[in-house]
Amino acid sequence: MNKLPTNPAVLLLADGTVFHGLAAGAIGTTTGEIAFNTGMTGYQEIFTDPSYYGQILVMAASHIGNYGTHDAEIESESVKISGLVVKKFSENFSRVGSTESLQSYFERDGKVAIRDVDTRAIIRHIRNKGAMNAIISSEETDIEKLKKILAEVPSMDGLELSSRVSCKEAYDVGNPDADFRVAVVDYGAKKNIVRCLVERDCLCRVFPMDATVAEMEAWNPDGYMLSNGPGDPSVMKDSIKLVDEIVEIGKPVFGICLGHQLLALRAGLKTVKMFNGHRGINHPVKNNITGKCEITSQNHGFVVDMESAQGNDEIEVTHTHLNDGTLAGIRYKNHPVFSVQYHPESSPGPHDSRYLFDTFVGNMKEVKASVTN
Amino acid sequence: MPRDTSIKSVLIIGSGPIVIGQACEFDYSGSQAARSLREEGIEVTLINSNPATIMTDKVIADNIYLKPLEPEYIKEILQEHDIDAVLPTMGGQTALNLAIKCDELGIWKEFGVRMIGVDIHAIDVTENREAFRKLMEEIDIPMAPQATANSFLEGKEIAQKFGFPLCIRSSYTLGGAGAGIVHNQKDFDALLTRGLHVSPIHEVMIDKAMLGWKEFELELLRDHNDNVVIICSVENMDPMGIHTGDSITVAPAMTLSDRTYQKMRDMAFKMMRSIGNFAGGCNVQFAVSPDEKEDIIAIEINPRVSRSSALASKATGYPIAKVAAKLAIGYHLDELKNQITKTTSAFFEPTLDYVIVKIPRWNFDKFKDSDRTLGLQMKSVGEVMGIGRSFQEAIQKACQSLEIKRNGLGADGKELRDQEKILHSLEHASWNRLFHIYDAIKLGIPFKTIHEKTKIDYWFLKQIEDLILFEKKVEVHTLDTLPRDILFEAKQKGYADRQVAHLLRCLESEVFKKRNEMGINRVYKLVDTCAAEFEAQTPYYYSTFDEENESEVSDKKKVIVLGSGPNRIGQGIEFDYCCVHGVLAAKECGYETIMINCNPETVSTDFDTADKLYFEPVFWEHIYDIILHEKPEGVIVQLGGQTALKLAEKLSRYGIKVIGTSYEALDLAEDRGSFSRLLKEHNIPYPKFGVVDNAEQSLELADELGFPLLVRPSYVLGGQQMKIVINKEELETHVIDILHDMPGNKILLDHFLSGAIEAEADAICDGEDVYIIGIMQHIEPAGIHSGDSYAVLPPYNLGDLIIEQIETIVRKVAVELKTVGLINVQFAIKDDVVYVIEANPRASRTVPFIAKAYDEPYVNYATKVMLGEKKVKDFNFNPKKSGYAIKIPVFSFDKFPNVNKELGPEMKSTGEAIYFIDSLMDPFFRKIYSERNLYLSR
């Protein structure tokens, strides 16, 4: 079991606020946009979620690392967050199936963390001041020097990040004889999206985000999955164009998070950067079609502007966030296309929204049947 | 769907007297539900036989029936009121059982009353273990291998099939009555017989004991639209094998991965949906295998609010009962607001950025020769909750809340070093196992051994080990050399100044001074349901040591009310009743009210009660820091029982105003010597007595006083260790016993007035005028603790002369003690002489009873007097006097099968009921009167 480092560490926010604590993870310096997550379980899934790329994450839960890390509970092959801020970073973990402590996991990926800071005060600060860039260092405590490094970090607004986490080459997951073939456009896809599809008898081919429609159509998929991913969707002009071409094919499309935002942008809606994003596994969403509510897993700092959706002929709003009334899901009126802002694959998080995968598979079945008949 | 407007009048059934397994958590849920329904303009009628509850108060419900929880009284209510619906989920198993009974009798149907919040089928299927097992099988929810037996023979066959160890549980019982784990045939036979007897339908479930599996609980809420949320996950630190009510529990779950947690959540949803389509709360218990498979099995589901949901409400800030009541009348979760933020949705799952630890409070000392081992049957009488930013801080605070003469977990010089005893304790858990785990680690007993014997998850054990390692880092220092970061860490880990002082071999006050100099101060954080994601509107705080303080101090005049801590025998719900009324009265007088308490079951710790709630140990250090922070006008100590009262001395010493009767007066009443002098000066008779330090002196004094003698340690609660002795041998033995348990304590010897009649009076005094609110006469003769005797209000056979004497004495004593507020005086009457046994210048157990019987807000009045806002003569007293009210003591002896029901000077009852009679010809009165000598022992 790796001991926790005892070096002092510092967290500096772009507005000059400083928090002192102790180091955890690798010793070093890291920068990113600071955001907080309120989930009480599933830290490993969160840290490996590519949508968090570029983000320094504050965990609200007071103990992180209690059950170590587990090979089967990753959402990508490495830790994707830029840095971590926690109250209590567990030195000891307890779980029979765990292979490694969170400390050694972070060390291996060279990820820097700070512990024993007043995370609640930090979250209240961000809640009131909004998202901003931040720097963590466990090697440099000179605030002035850190300020200089921090000043160089670009704003998340207008930043395209998906290309950093998208796969470089297409790969297949699933049973080759599966009923359906799904082309997954990888903007930083969580593994569980693919798992949820494979469980529903789909063979997935995960394509790099710069794949062309021709390349994907050559594989003859039954439907398209537009994955989650990090960054500002509004600057992803090529991706919006690709999404437009995909929609026009007429096959079922399912968009999640960034994929959802791209589908919205394609329909002429706007996306905006949120004052504070939604990050947690307790987000209430209402399905406006069925009237039922679901507790969802969310992770987004940009959102589709609800106002821009009013009066749009092409789409209708299917889901609304119950806490702040933001847009949480849309569907196209004339295409078998729908998308949600949240994570129905929810790893971590409740399984309330898994029905959306069934809907997607149902759409593929329907379209396939109408084609063969 | 908005609320169902056809429901205009609702009946809520309470849970009756407090017994082990069903305590004041149901006063909390019932009060919340009543308030929640009244907010909607619904007329609330309430039935409960327990007079010490807030729920049976006019401030809570429209129509109150202090009647036995029997179908005939339900019928009476339905005849008198036009009730649309009954809500039976707020009063524990008692209320559910009564609802079923009424349903079977066709009463609900006859009066056109709908049952809301649950359905009969759901109750039936969850309580009938065989039906439940079948249902779980149908929906593919795994359970431990089990079978039901309706006969001794069937039981034995099952045992043969499954093999030991086995659990036996009785169907339709409370708090695991008749349940246990057996490892061999002999024990099995005994428990099987008992289990079959206790079950009202003579059925037991026998299942394979999943010893060592990890135990978890989820609290669910569902609306009529089938929207479900999990309010809280709770992990039992004590694994399977110990009743959850007797387990140390932690929220949120500490050692659950998301994968296993979500699987459990799915199972809980499936289970709740399978038992019926009702809107309301639900508690589900699971066990998880402690291996890499992390298999989950269901243990049970309770379709009602429970002790766990009260804990979950306090742990998260999400008021389950309040919301459940709204759901019962038709609201959907997404139509309601989060009660803490007031802006976000009530349909969400609370998230915690702190840890809570609940530790049960036991009272084994009251049940001589009882089996003190914890098992499937609940034995604790109360609980405390500690809130901290880490598990360590939370568990230290919980230990500080227990009032078991410990300053926290360890570092107080009270460790056990006997290896054999420790090892035995680890395996046979009792009230002190937590402390022995600490001792075991400190002693160097291998981790593996500790884990094997306790089966407690390594994570928790490592947290305790870390405390011991940390203490070593502290101990190498002295107060002068201690660096700031170590002291800060000690405080963050929850160590009290006293514990740090012990480690540094210095005084508590020196540590306090040092940390203040170093700027290490308590800060207060909010319990806000959302981990600070949204702004909260509700002032529910806990303390910690961190950077930011969130508790802003107003410039209003403030008063602090000290709560009574964990429930225990001798100090229970009645003091919570008093605290809540004190808070409400102070509010009426324009004060900002601040409540301090650590008991999660209570109404006083409902964030809706006081203007500001500090959920903190009623422990000097925490109280003093809050006082320094808030700067109140003063502190009310006379409503929170002995717990609060005993802090008066220190408050006074630190120059903090004790509201009402001063510390000096409180001390005068407590001190036998000075109090007797006072009585003597005024020619008030009292039994001859003396104070001794050892057995030698006691024998000498006995010659002077004459037998029988009442022997007790001074300064104790509820007659602890009090005994009547009739000869020198007994006297010697008992004195030595007391000194063994409480070394250095003074011992009081009173001449016992054998055969005397006992009576007690409560009064309000403003220092000059005295108003006697009621005199109660005990039915049993002197020798049985007042809390354990039947008592009648007003006296049933005391002559006018006697009553006159009592009244004169009460007035005199109250004024002489300079009482400002409440006072209780106890009497023994023999040969027409009225002797004073004791006087307590504080709210007593009987005050709520009298207030209920006479329908007058006495605690409210007394609080206004204490605050100096009103004089006794300002009130227009108008007691509703007709017939008699009998106080019925209620016991929990059934939880201790080997203990005989023997009553004496030491209190043993856990609760009480009120019963009104029109005349002394009442058959119930005749019966108890004729049996008055039955249980008297010594």
Provide an overview of this structure.
Chain B: InterPro entries: ATP-grasp (IPR011761), ATP_grasp_subdomain_1 (IPR013815), CarbamoylP_synth_lsu_oligo_sf (IPR036897), CPAse_ATP-bd (IPR005479), CPSase_dom (IPR005483), CPSase_lsu (IPR006275), CPSase_lsu_oligo (IPR005480), CPSase_preATP-grasp (IPR058047). Chain B: Its cofactor is Mn(2+). Chain A is α/β, with parallel strands linked by helices and about 375 residues long. Chain A has two domains: about 10-150, Carbamoyl-phosphate synthase small subunit, N-terminal domain (Glucose Oxidase, domain 1, 3-Layer(bba) Sandwich); about 160-370, Class I glutamine amidotransferase (GATase) domain (Rossmann fold, 3-Layer(aba) Sandwich), CATH 3.40.50.880. Chain A contains eleven helices and 19 strands. Chain A has helices at about 45, 100-110, 120-130, 145-150, 160-165, 190-200, 215-220, 235-250, 260-265, 305-310, 355-370; strands at about 10-15, 20-25, 30-35, 55-60, 65, 85, 90, 110-115, 130-135, 170-175, 180-185, 200-210, 225, 255, 270-285, 295-305, 315-320, 325-330, 335-340. In chain A, the strands form three sheets. In chain A, strands 10-12-11-13-14-19-18-17-15-16 form a ten-stranded mixed sheet, sandwiched between helices. In chain A, strand 3 (about 30-35), helix 1 and strand 4 form a beta-alpha-beta unit. In chain A, helix 8 (about 235-250) packs across helix 9. Chain A is globular. Chain A starts with 7 loop residues before the first strand and ends with a helix. The mean pLDDT of chain A is about 95. Chain B has about 950 residues and is α+β, with helices and mostly antiparallel strands. Chain B folds into seven domains: about 10-115, Rossmann fold; about 145-210, Dna Ligase, domain 1 (2-Layer Sandwich), CATH 3.30.1490; about 220-350, D-amino Acid Aminotransferase, Chain A, domain 1; about 390-520, Carbamoyl-phosphate synthetase, large subunit oligomerisation domain (Carbamoyl Phosphate Synthetase, Chain A, domain 4, Orthogonal Bundle); about 525-660, Rossmann fold (3-Layer(aba) Sandwich), CATH 3.40.50.20; about 690-750, ATP-grasp fold, A domain (Dna Ligase, domain 1), CATH 3.30.1490.20; about 755-930, ATP-grasp fold, B domain (D-amino Acid Aminotransferase, Chain A, domain 1), CATH 3.30.470.20. In chain B, the strands form six sheets. A seven-stranded antiparallel sheet of chain B has the order 14-13-10-11-12-15-16, with helices on both faces. A seven-stranded antiparallel sheet of chain B has the order 31-30-27-28-29-32-33, sandwiched between helices. A six-stranded mixed sheet of chain B has the order 17-18-21-20-19-22, with helices on both faces. In chain B, helix 20 (about 575-590) crosses helix 30. The longest helix of chain B has 18 residues, at about 260-275. Chain B is globular, with a radius of gyration of 27 Å. In chain B, about 60% of the residues are buried. Chains A and B meet through helix 3 and strand 15 of A and helix 9 and helix 16 of B.
